[in-house]
Design a protein that fits this description.
globular, 6% strand, disordered N terminus, 100 residues, mainly alpha
Length: 100
């Protein structure tokens, strides 16, 4: 049998993996380029958008780390998906990421 991942450890692994992929972007790149690369990594099927279901999966992986409830996950998705088409394109992602 495979090695079991302790409860909560998969969240840490997700963060480590994601940040290891984007950390090289944070040096000598402008902010928009960094966000484009982050979006490209999250859009792993290269569709040009992130389906809300995929975004929900991502947020559910990290919600315990950032102390989000299921309702807050849904509110974030609703907030990011401005045109309510069931997916997040780069413009929606970028506007959310740079929002103060």
């Amino acid at each position: 049998m495979g090695e079991e991942i302790p409860q909560g450890q998969e969240d840490v692994d997700f963060f480590d993996e994601f940040f290891s992929q984007v950390s090289h972007l944070l040096h000598e790149k402008d902010e928009e380029t960094c966000y484009k690369e982050m979006f490209r990594i999250l859009d792993d099927q290269r569709k040009g958008f992130i389906p809300n279901e995929d975004l929900r999966d991502i947020l559910n992986k990290i919600k315990s780390q950032v102390e989000m409830t299921d309702q807050e996950v849904e509110e974030v998705i609703d907030y990011i998906d401005k045109n309510k088409d069931g997916r997040v394109d780069f413009n929606e992602f970028y506007k959310f990421m740079v929002k103060e």
